[in-house]
Amino acid sequence: MNITTLEEQIHLAEKIIKKDSETLDKNDRFKVASIDSFKEHLDSLRKQLYDLQIRREKEILEVRFVGDKAHNGSLPLMLHAALSKGLAESLITLSTKIKTPKKHADFVNQSELDLRLANIVSGSTKFIISLDIQPDLFGWSLSQNTLTYWFSFFQALENPENNQEIFSMMGNKGIKSIKSMLSALKSNNLDFELNWDSHHNKNHYWVGNSQKIEAALNFLNDLEIKEPLICEISGAIQTLDISGKITIVDEDKKSYRIRLEKSLLPEIEKLHIKQFVSLKVMKHISTHPTFEKIVESYEFIEIL
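RE: above sequence
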């Protein structure tokens, strides 16, 4: 069984247990035994996913540079340093924000990602970058989630209206790193290609030619991301997605979609539909001349 199939079965099992637990009569011994048995099945699936992730060991990101200054597997040393710095800092900063929402992302996850330049392929100037998977007991991997969001960021540069929240998620520090890398590519007349064959058997690919790089820099220069705010949201849970989204409706009927990572599954399992809760969240606000309205997004911190 592959990782994708296991994750689908785990997601289905979690939904069934969540639904049945909300209507459970604890005096119904048959029903209690049935749910307990299903929980054991879920634990078994999670163990299988964890074992598969351990066997996969690493994620491999390929970054290929194309241009007169990139030939025979080499780059000018200062250019190499600038590009490597932009790549590494954007990935590490994003990973820090994914794991624990923070107002100011730092580099605490550097050792957890174990981001390494594993090889430079001669003849094509292709960086082979490895990231340790290190799954938790639920099979969740920081490296895999970081790469998924990282590619979503680059895809959003072409169609920002399709995923406006990703820019706040990358944050000013991560975007600064991306801009420094794109500026180095532009000034040295280099194109680049990003490639990752993910754990879901999906190929993530993005190519940045001179036109795309120019357009991306213009967009990012006009993008404004406000300082994140720590705030409290209270209301009734309208939707609860085990994969990582909670919708809360407050007393004024305003709806809030709050993101949380799968690594916080024990926190999710404490909640149920229609439950009145108070959550501490981090609020992100971003604006851009092309956005129809101010973009607000929220990240879960804790249940109050």
